[in-house]
C-alpha cells in the first residue's frame, strides 16, 4: 500500500467550490457505523436480503445469454427505453402519469439531484428547501454554490406561509428563486409528510412566482398506515403540468446497488439534463437497467413491496415502543406513517454531535441534526433510521442512546 500523504500539496489547485464541500466530523464518526459490531440507526439502508436472490440470478444469466450485445454495450443517454416503460407503471401506482419520452434515467436519485443543480444553479443563486432537508440534496446544491434558504417544517410539512414570505421578498431580484426542493412523503430526514392542502398551496405559489418545485419521492410507496396523498406532480398535471419536476429512485423499491433513479420533466428541461448526462458519464449502466427491466417486468415485484412494508412497519413500531419506553418524558419524536426515518428532538441544551461521540463509543450510531441544515441549525435534533436493524438491536440501541441522553441531562443539571 502506498504511504498516506497528510500534507495537501495541491491545495492551490482546487476550484473555489471545493471550499463548500468539506468532509464533516460527523461523516468521519459515521464511517465507523459500517462496522458490523455497531447498531446503526445512521444510514437509510434498505433490507436487500428480502429480495429473491435466485430470481435475480436467473435474470442476470438470461440477460447474458440472450441480450449480451445490448446489455454490455453503451446505451442511450436518456436511459434504456424498455425500463422507462416499466417506470411508467411504477409511477402510475402513485398517481403520476408520464410517457417514455418524459423520463430520463439517472445513476440513482442522487445523480438526478446533481444534474438538476447543474442545469439550474449559477453560483449565488437562491433555492428553497425544507429545513431540515436531505443531506445529499444539500450537498449537491452546495457543490454548485447555491444560496440555500431552509424553511421550517411542522407536523404537516414545510410551512408554506414562510415560503410565500421568502418568495415575495425575493421576487424583485434578477432570477428570484431557482427552485423549491421538497421530499413531500415520509421525508428524509424528518419522516414528515406534506399535507394535501400545503401541497396545493405550494404548487399555487410556484405557479404564481414562475418557479419550479423539485419533488423527490423515494419513499411514497412505503406507506405503513393511512391513505395516500396525491403527489405534487399529479396535482400539477391537472393544470399546465410544467411547474413540477418529479424525481424518484429504485433504491428503496428494489436495491440501491443497481444505482437507478429517474427524472420526469418537461421536454426542454430533459434536453438540458441529457446534455448533463453526456458530459458526466455518457450513459448510465445499461446492464443495471436491463436487470431492473427484468425485475419490474415480473408482476411479483409488487409482492416484494408488500414484504418490505411488513418488515419496515414492524421495525418502525419497535422503535416507537422503545422510544416511548425509554425517552417519553425527555425527548420528542416525529411519527412517520411510512419511509425510513424518525426525527428525534432532545432538550435544547444538549448537542447531538456530542451524544454521537458517546454513542459510537457504546457501539450505536445515528446522524446528528446539523447534517440536515445548510446553516448550522439542528444541534438538538437527530435522524434515527428504523429500516436497517433487527427488533433486538433496535430495542438495545435505543436503550443505550437513552442512557447517554439521560446521563448528559444529569451532568448538565449538576452544573446549574
Ligand atoms: C430524499 C432522498 N433523495 C435521494 C436519495 C438518493 O437515493 P439514491 O441515489 O440511492 O437513489 C435519497 C437516499 O437516501 C433520499 O433519501
The total domain count is 2
- CATH-level-2 architecture of the largest domain: 3-Layer(aba) Sandwich
The largest sheet, given as strand count, sense and whether it forms a barrel, is: 8 strands, mixed
* Termini Cα gap: 52 Å
Determine the fraction of residues in helical runs and give it as a percent range: 40-55%
Element-by-element helix/strand order: HEHHEHEHEEHEHEHEEHHHEEHEEEH
Class from helix and strand fractions? alpha/beta
Rounded mean pLDDT is 93
Descriptive account of the structure:
The protein has 416 residues and is an alpha/beta fold. It folds into two domains: 11-51 and 303-414, Alpha-Beta Complex (Aspartate Aminotransferase, domain 1), CATH 3.90.1150.10; 74-297, Type I PLP-dependent aspartate aminotransferase-like (Major domain) (Aspartate Aminotransferase, domain 2, 3-Layer(aba) Sandwich). Helix content is 43%, strand content 14%. The chain has 13 helices and 14 strands. It has helices at 25-30, 53-71, 81-92, 108-120, 135-143, 160-170, 196-208, 232-237, 267-281, 286-297, 301-327, 352-361, 391-414; strands spanning 39-40, 103-106, 126-131, 147-154, 157-158, 177-182, 212-216, 244-249, 261-264, 332-333, 341-345, 364-365, 367-368, 381-385. The strands form three sheets. The chain has an eight-stranded mixed sheet, sandwiched between helices. Strands 10-11-14-13 form a four-stranded antiparallel sheet, covered by helices on one side. Strands 1-12 form a two-stranded parallel sheet. Helix 3 packs across helix 10 and helix 11 runs parallel beside helix 13. It is globular. The chain starts with 24 loop residues before the first helix and ends with a helix. The model has no long low-confidence stretch (mean pLDDT 93). It binds pyridoxal-5'-phosphate.
